[in-house]
Design brief:
It comes from Myotis myotis (Greater mouse-eared bat). This protein has 527 residues and is of the alpha/beta class. The chain has a domain of 326 residues: Alkaline Phosphatase, subunit A. It is built from 14 helices and 14 strands. Bound molecules: calcium ion.
């Protein structure tokens, strides 16, 4: 081949560099916290020391409006690993025990698709999803093979497992999923280690010792109490224990990243850090309010340094992570069906474009049905910018409280204070927490704590109508069985509550079909 001039040589050189670049496999490291929130320097909490998360944030795009679609462990993990909401992938509630929920056998999960595309997959830590045929990993050290404390909280063990995964000499690209069990509560299951297992491995008598961990102990007076947590001595002590556990995870993250660096692959790896659901406090986990659904999300790409350290305001979902990882590996999503003949379509999107320029993404959806087998409280939600709409489908039932929150010092103190008529120092009362309106609409610009339900406010009637239509459209697109769920009639001699009264209305579906929502309440303002 003749090359007539310097331009040609430059093109050939560029082509060669591109080929050389492609010859290096790209990898993904997904790090998941268990019930983690915004307790980090990366999210401006100055009361806790998280140097490793903060360092990662300086090499990441930091998302400020990231949300899980479901605020419960297994449903969130299954949604994250499939790109499908819980009502579509089948993981309606927690996976463990005899009542275990599982995803549908026909679901094509991220690890399955990656494996079929010759990407090596590994999981270290808490899996909590199944069946195995839907969520297969080539390398797996989880609660199914080991003690969850050892693979999810012992950061020395985690470091060594990461090293083992990287040392196989396999030249294929990899997807490594490190799912910490920190900072989950454990006062209900292993109370000897403290409310958050903050003593596990701290070197004290009977606690064992994790060699790589230098425990950080916090004074309850020094913690930052989130607005949705009662500011009481009991809750402050709970938060101080949570901080110590987050510190263990933070040091573990530093070790994991160091293993990738030492193996020479960190600069070829997309690193994602997030959490599966809100922190285990009232209004947090198992709720679709902001404290239950908002998640930290750091996305660090060695190929996109221009936005490192920047904050994105884009509204994104953990449902976006499956399309993001597929995009990173240039793997198309397959054409297949779970129910009948309707093709499954991901409603999330790849986050990679956001690493180049700030996108105008404004809408995310939520869907929750169960937590524990006994905790059935179906909710659907949509957040569009600062407006959040929650549909409590079975709003006449009391909201169920999960076991480990119920026995926690914070909630026990809240119950006791309420029973004794003492000040709760909480922003809600328990009656309102247990008994909710059917529709809850909040404007977080004016009411960031979601305390004023605007569903009956005529000024918000057009917004309510729009959000309801968007939510119904998404439910139909994702084949939500609850879209036609049973609806209660008004009790004899009793009117519907203000936001739960109704006449017929209709909304369009993607296929142009009109849905008669005869059970929907009349919209405020006479719509
Ligand atoms: Ca969790």
């Amino acid at each position: 081949m003749r090359c007539p001039g310097p331009v040609c040589w430059a093109l050939l050189l560029a082509l060669g560099l591109c080929r050389a670049h492609r010859a290096r496999p790209r990898h993904v490291l997904l790090i998941l916290a268990d019930d983690g929130g915004f307790e980090s320097g990366a999210y401006n909490n100055s009361a806790i020391a998280t140097p490793h998360l903060d360092a990662l944030a300086r090499r990441s795009l930091v998302f400020r409006n990231a949300f899980t679609s479901v605020s419960s462990c297994s449903p969130s993990r299954a949604s994250l690993l499939t790109g499908l909401p819980q009502h579509q992938n089948g993981m309606y509630g927690l996976h463990q025990g005899v009542h275990h929920f599982s995803s549908f056998e026909g679901v094509r999960s991220l690890p399955l698709l990656l494996s079929r595309a010759s990407v090596r997959t590994g999981i270290i830590g808490k899996k909590h999803v199944g069946p195995e045929a839907v969520f297969p990993f080539d390398f797996a050290h989880t609660e199914e093979t080991d003690s969850v404390l050892q693979v999810g909280r012992n950061i020395t063990r985690i470091r060594l497992l990461v090293r083992e995964f990287l040392r196989t000499g396999d030249s294929r690209p990899f997807f490594l999923y490190v799912a910490f069990h920190d900072p989950h509560r454990c006062g209900h299951s292993q109370p000897q280690y403290g409310a958050f297992c903050e003593k596990f491995g701290n070197g004290e008598s009977g606690m064992g010792r994790i060699p790589d961990w230098t425990p950080q102990v916090y004074d309850p007076q020094d913690v930052q109490v989130p607005y949705f947590v009662p500011d009481t001595p009991a809750a402050r002590a709970d938060l101080a224990a949570q901080y110590t556990t987050i510190g263990r995870m933070d040091q573990g993250i530093g070790l994991v990243l160091q293993e990738l660096r030492a193996a020479g692959v960190l600069n070829d790896t997309l690193v994602i850090f997030t959490s599966d659901n809100g922190i285990p406090f009232p209004s947090g986990r198992t709720n679709l309010y902001w404290p239950g659904a908002a998640e930290p999300l750091l996305v660090s790409s060695p190929e996109h340094p221009s936005r490192w350290g920047q904050v994105s305001e884009a509204y994104v979902s953990l449902l976006d992570l499956t399309p993001t990882v597929l995009d990173w590996f240039s793997i198309p999503y397959p054409r297949y069906a779970i129910f009948g003949s309707k093709t499954v379509r991901l409603t999330g999107r790849s986050l990679l474009p956001a690493l180049d320029a700030e996108p105008a993404w404004s809408t995310v959806f939520g869907s929750q049905s169960h937590h524990e087998a006994t905790m059935f409280y179906p909710m659907r939600s949509v957040q569009r910018g600062a407006l959040r709409l929650v549909h409590n489908l079975h709003f006449r039932m009391p909201f169920p409280i999960d076991q480990d929150l119920y026995v926690s010092p914070t909630f026990q103190d809240l119950l006791n204070r309420t029973a004794a008529g003492r000040p709760t120092r909480w922003y809600k009362d328990l009656h309102g927490y247990y008994y909710r309106e059917r529709w809850e609409l909040y404007d977080l610009r004016r009411d960031p704590r979601e305390t004023q339900n605007l569903a009956a406010d005529p000024r918000y009637a057009p917004a309510l109508e729009l959000l309801r239509a968007q939510l119904a459209k998404w439910q139909w697109e994702t084949q939500d069985p609850w879209v036609c769920g049973p609806v209660l009639a008004p009790l004899p001699g009793r009117a519907w509550p203000a936001s739960g009264t109704g006449t017929a209305s209709s909304t369009g579906t993607p296929g142009g079909r009109s849905l008669m929502l005869a059970s929907f309440p009349p919209l405020p303002g006479g719509v």
